[in-house]
Write a structure and sequence with these properties.
This protein is mainly α and 58 residues long. The chain has two helices and no strands.
């Protein structure tokens, strides 16, 4: 049972349209994500509460 090249099915794609190159996303894109902003707000509020406690309660 030999395989001839003429019996093989051509599965190659012709001219595949290329997607336009995406612009690299930087720090401002990362900061616009809601989970990150919630995390940073929680950490910032904890630091603020600790600073206020140190300044006024101690």
């Amino acid at each position: 049972m030999g395989h001839d090249l003429s019996e093989m099915v051509d599965t190659t794609r012709g001219d595949v349209p290329t997607r336009p190159a995406e612009e690299p996303r930087g720090c401002l894109f990362a900061l616009s994500q809601p989970p990150l902003m919630i995390f940073l707000a929680v950490v910032g509020s904890l630091l603020l509460m600790a600073a206020v406690h140190d300044l006024f309660m101690l």
